[in-house]
Write a structure and sequence with these properties.
Layout (H helix, E strand, L loop, with lengths): L1 H19 L4 H22 L11 H24 L5 H7 L3 H9 L8 H19 L4 H23 L9 H23 L10 H26 L4 H22 L6 H21 L7
Helix pairs in contact: 1-9, 1-10, 2-3, 2-8, 2-9, 3-7, 3-8, 4-7, 4-10, 4-11, 5-7, 5-11, 6-11, 10-11
Length: about 290
C-alpha cells in the first residue's frame, strides 16, 4: 500500500508542475522544497528530534549543504524543463538519474560490471530515439534540462551517501530541503528573476502546496516506510514505473499524447536504467 501511494504521488508531480504554470518555474521549485522542509521540521520537533547540526562533524555539515544545493538545482532544472517539453519526455529523461548514480559511483571506487555498462548502452540508445522523436528547438532544450536534472539528482544521492546515519531522517530532510529552498531563492533574488506574475493565482498556489506536501512529504515518507519491510529493489520499482504513471496522467489531464517512437525510446531508456539500478542495489530519487 505504501508503494502504491508513493507511485501515485510521484507520478502526479510532473502533471501538477505543468498546472502550476504560469507561476515562474524557480518560484515553484523554491516554494515546493520550502514547504517540504517546514513539514519535515515540524515532524522532527513532534518526534523530539533536534534541528541543530551541532551533533555532527564539519565534513557532514558540508555534505548536507552541498546535497541541498544539488537538490535545488535538480528541481529548478526539472521544473523548467517541463515548460519546454512534454510530461512524458521530462518524466522519462529525469529517470536517467539511476544511470548517472552508477556512473558517479565509479569516482568513489564502485566496481564496473557488465550490468552497468549494458544498462548505459541500452538507456543511451533509448534516449536517442526518444529525443529524436520530436526535434523542435524548445523540446530538445527541455529534454536536455531534464537530463541535467537527473544528473543533479544522482550527484545529490552520491554526496548524501552515508549522511542519513548521522541524523534522524526528518531532521536530515528538513535541512536538505531547506538548503535547496535557500539556494533557489537566492538565485532568483540575485538574478533579478520574477518571484510571481499576475497571471498566477489560487490554482497555482494549490498546485505548489500539493507538490510540497504530496510527493515531497507523503511520497517520500511512504517510500521510506516501505523500505523498512520490503527489499530495496522492490521499492526502486516505484521510481522506474513513475514515468508510465506520469504519461498516463498527462494524457488524461492535459491531453498530451505520445507516439510509438516515443513509447519505444522511453521503454528502452527505462529498461537500461533498471538494469543499471539492479547493479547498484537501490534507487531513491528526490522527486
Amino acid at each position: 500500500m505504501s508503494l502504491l501511494v508513493s507511485w501515485l504521488l510521484f507520478s502526479s508531480a510532473a502533471v501538477v508542475i505543468v498546472i502550476a504554470a504560469p507561476a515562474p518555474p524557480a518560484t515553484v521549485a523554491a516554494s515546493r522544497v520550502a514547504i517540504t522542509a517546514l513539514a519535515w521540521a515540524l515532524i522532527a520537533r513532534l518526534r523530539g528530534a533536534g534541528l541543530l547540526l551541532a551533533q555532527v562533524d564539519r565534513a557532514t555539515r558540508r555534505r548536507i549543504w552541498i546535497s541541498g544545493a544539488l537538490l535545488g538545482a535538480h528541481f529548478s532544472l526539472w521544473i523548467l524543463s517541463l515548460t519546454l517539453t512534454s510530461v512524458a519526455h521530462g518524466a522519462v529523461l529525469v529517470g536517467l538519474q539511476t544511470l548517472f548514480a552508477g556512473l558517479f559511483g565509479l569516482f568513489l571506487g564502485d566496481r564496473v560490471s557488465w550490468r552497468l555498462a549494458f544498462g548505459v548502452a541500452v538507456a543511451l540508445f533509448g534516449t536517442a530515439i526518444l529525443t529524436g522523436s520530436d526535434a523542435g528547438t524548445a523540446t530538445l532544450l527541455g529534454d536536455g534540462l531534464a537530463v541535467l536534472a537527473g544528473a543533479c539528482s544522482a550527484a545529490y544521492l552520491v554526496v548524501n551517501r552515508g549522511v542519513g546515519h548521522a541524523l534522524p531522517l526528518p531532521t536530515l530532510l528538513a535541512w536538505v530541503n531547506g538548503v535547496a529552498a535557500l539556494t533557489i531563492g537566492g538565485w532568483v533574488l540575485l538574478s533579478g528573476g520574477e518571484v510571481w506574475v499576475p497571471e498566477a493565482g489560487g490554482v497555482e498556489v494549490i498546485a505548489i502546496l500539493w507538490l510540497g506536501l504530496g510527493p515531497g512529504l507523503i511520497g517520500h515518507g511512504s517510500m521510506n516506510w516501505a523500505a523498512r519491510s520490503l527489499p530495496v529493489h522492490v521499492v526502486s520499482l516505484t521510481v522506474l514505473l513513475e514515468p508510465a504513471g506520469a504519461a498516463a496522467l498527462a494524457w488524461v489531464a492535459l491531453g498530451q499524447s505520445f507516439g510509438l517512437e516515443e513509447v519505444l525510446g522511453a521503454a528502452l531508456l527505462l529498461v537500461g536504467a533498471g538494469i543499471s539500478a539492479s547493479d547498484q542495489g537501490q534507487v531513491a530519487p528526490p522527486d
